[in-house]
Amino acid sequence: MKTLRYAVIGTGMMGHEHLRNLALVRDMNGWDIQVTALIDPNEEMRESAVSLARSLGNLHANGYAKLSEVDDSSIDIYLIVSPNFTHHAIITELLPTGKPILAEKPVCTTVAQCDDLLLRLAGYPSPFWVAMEYRYMPPTARFMERLNSGEIGTLRMLSIKEHRFPFLEKVGDWNRFSENTGGTLVEKCCHHFDLMRLMVDSEPVRVFGSGAMDVNHLDERYGTRTPDIIDNAYVIIDFANGVRASLELCMFADGADPQEQLTAIGDRGKLDAFIPGPDRFWPDARERSASVVFSPRDRSAPSIDRLEIDPALAAAGDHHGSTYYQHVQFVRAVQEGGVVEVSAEDGVKAVRMGAAAQESIRTGQAIVFDQFMTDASLPSQGTAR
Ligand SMILES: NC(=O)c1ccc[n+]([C@@H]2O[C@H](COP(=O)([O-])OP(=O)(O)OC[C@H]3O[C@@H](n4cnc5c(N)ncnc54)[C@H](O)[C@@H]3O)[C@@H](O)[C@H]2O)c1
Questions:
Q1: Nearby residues of 20 by Cβ (< 8 Å), 6 or more positions away
Q2: Which end of the chain is more exposed for a tag (fewer CB within 10 A), N or C?
Q3: How far apart are CA 265 and CA 294, in angstroms?
Q4: Topology of the domain covering 135-318+339-372
Q5: What 3-state DSSP class applies to 331?
């Protein structure tokens, strides 16, 4: 395999997770992967990333404050892990390179940027992939496999529940404001909306949401500003093929185990995936395993798949090894012309669904999704109560 030299743009919490996983991708596959450029305006994060990268064997890793300081001829792949509100401008800056790009979710933060990105990316000569790690979590992947096996019959209802801890603190507190993130249902829940499209295999036609910031961040002040990010919501989505889906998000449920539950119900049975949260947030070593359970309608015993996560992959991040699995598939797309599994269009659709849910919460009305495909002077995406 040809050497792949990565530039990592944004070296905060998730940038560090990508560095640890890229080292595993190199070591576990014997691939020649080198991280050569770490770009971040924040000196502390940049230096921490350079020292981590070097300790992981990237001996030529160097730090840069700006993307424009990096010599493009020394880079084969760009990995964007900066805050959401920077993604659109960074992608635009990278397009003339024509190089492969892996861009963290959400691919952008507004519907206008969605339209613009699709236009700019049409005919892009290299893989452009939106990082949607939740697709690659082993319990989610097994859930998909069993869903596609047809054992539940025809899918009719899909629900995704996430009960978790509040948003973590970020560099410069960018995630406290919807104008930076796109709003909670774009920032966090684009993962869930992406999973819904993948699992239902259809497009949304109507979105109705109810949510607010009821518990978290109420006492926080940044200068004169108070955060405006939703911490709990229900969202119901009708899909074109008649499947109904729902999302239940609660971000003041720190002690919940599992953190996520996926449920698919068809005319022959029900499938659940139970997904624990990241180990590092639990003080004890209590065993918390992931499983996928099929419950047939005939009341015969449910069948349970327990999933073991490779400890090296689990230790490399908060996402059950999914960051590693996604990188492997991305490298295959780059090196072998493999399929781009999460396209710009997928990334953009997930943003649009989140933005439609935010707009439904703001207005109290169901949103007809087709009418939400262009910006049409949408008002800002604040929190309704
Ligand atoms: N897929 C997932 O599960 C997942 C999980 C966490 C974060 N993320 C995404 O990763 C991205 C980063 O999140 P994070 O948690 O690492 O945030 P963070 O605040 O910890 O780190 C972001 C870093 O980007 C830097 N930065 C700001 N502007 C920049 C610019 N123009 N160019 C380069 N670097 C810049 C900041 O200084 C900071 O060090 C976000 O888009 C977030 O949504 C994805």
A1: 52, 56, 316, 317
A2: C
A3: 10
A4: Dihydrodipicolinate Reductase; domain 2 (3.30.360)
A5: helix
Which ligand 1 atom sits closest to the C-alpha of 82?
24
C-alpha 284/C-alpha 255 separation (Å) is 12
Among 8, 9, 13, 14, which is best to mutate for testing ligand 1, by the most ligand atoms less than 8 A from CB?
Answer: 14
Report, as an integer, the average pLDDT of 321-348: 97
* Atom number, ligand 1, closest to the C-alpha of residue 174: 19
Res. 349: pLDDT tops 50: yes
Tokens of 219: 């006492």
Report d(CA 336, CA 350) in Å as an integer. Answer: 27
Distance between CA atoms of residues 77 and 221, nearest Å: 39
pLDDT, tens digit (0-9, with 9 covering 90-100), for 18-37: 999 999 999 999 999 999 99
Residue 38: phi and psi, rounded to 5, are -125, 115
Show me where the domains of the chain are located.
4-133, 135-318+339-372
Nearest protein Cα to ligand 1, atom 21: 12
Q: Are 346 and 58 in contact (CB under 8 A)?
A: no
- The overall longest dimension of the chain from CA atoms, in Å, is 64
pLDDT at 307: 93
- Outline where DSSP puts E strands in 59-190: 62-64, 77-80, 101-104, 128-131, 155-163
Q: Could you tell me the distance, in angstroms and rounded to a whole number, from the CA of residue 91 to the centre of ligand 1?
A: 14
**From CA 311, how far away is CA 215, in angstroms rounded?**
34
Q: How far apart are CA 357 and CA 199, in angstroms?
A: 19
Residue 43, pLDDT score: 98
At the fourth CATH level, the homologous superfamily of domain 4-133 is NAD(P)-binding Rossmann-like Domain (3.40.50.720)
- pTM listed for this prediction: 0.96
322-336 vs 138-148: helix crossing angle, rounded to 10: 70
Specify the residue with its C-alpha closest to ligand 1, atom 29: 82
How many whole angstroms separate alpha carbon 252 and alpha carbon 244?
Answer: 26
Q: Ligand 1, atom 3: nearest CA belongs to which residue?
A: 133
Provide the token pair at 92: 């635009």
Residue 134 alpha carbon, nearest atom of ligand 1: 3
> Cα–Cα distance between 4 and 69 in angstroms, integer?
20
